[in-house]
Amino acid sequence: MSRKSIPDHAPEFRRRLLRWFRRHGRDLPWRRTRDPYHIVVSEFMLQQTQVTRVEGYYARFLEQYPSIEALAAAPASAVRESWDGLGYYRRAANLHRLAQAVVREHAGVVPSDPAVLLRLPGVGRYTAGAVASFAYERATPAVDTNVARVLRRAFHPGLRGPGLPARLWETAARLLPRGGRTAWAFNQAVMELGATVCTARVARCGGCPVRSACLTGRRVKGEG
Ligand code: SF4
Question: Which of the listed residues 145, 149, 205 should we mutate to test ligand 1's pocket, taking the one with most ligand atoms within 8 A of CB?
Fold first, then answer.
């Protein structure tokens, strides 16, 4: 993927987004750690679940299962019970199976390579990228629904259809800063923008930090 084909407004988008995130990004427990096990737990919990709901569960779960070995050794029924109230219980079963696979096949160390992560239970392309980036600071794209929405509005507002997801992953890879630590911040920042400003319900273009570098935002007049 050539960096030459990066859209003209991409550098400004990156710059503005990173500056905004440094000032306004929420202080979330999984942003204060690079512990791969903790990151995996947070990513499983955050799938289709609000941050505010996850925070309490995350802390309690890690108290109950302080290491990946402790989780792997726990009975499935206990893990299911710890997940009680969080919903989408298949995630708990997958997380448990993932812990067992990591202990059995990777000596208890969560892999850092997205291709290897992808072979673990419950890990799709997004989670593989997120764990590689958020735990190991690898410069890997991670496109969830929030990121997809922001990138579509900012770079491909007219694009629809089956080719869209691949295009968004490509754009995410092109935009990603090369340094792992900055890539970590960039991935977090796009998600944050999608969760708090450029939401599914409303695009708040009027107060958006990247508006001047967004194809949708440039067209909107006044408040978004
Ligand atoms: S300017 Fe509007 S559409 Fe563009 S990223 Fe911001 S909120 Fe989303």
Answer: 205
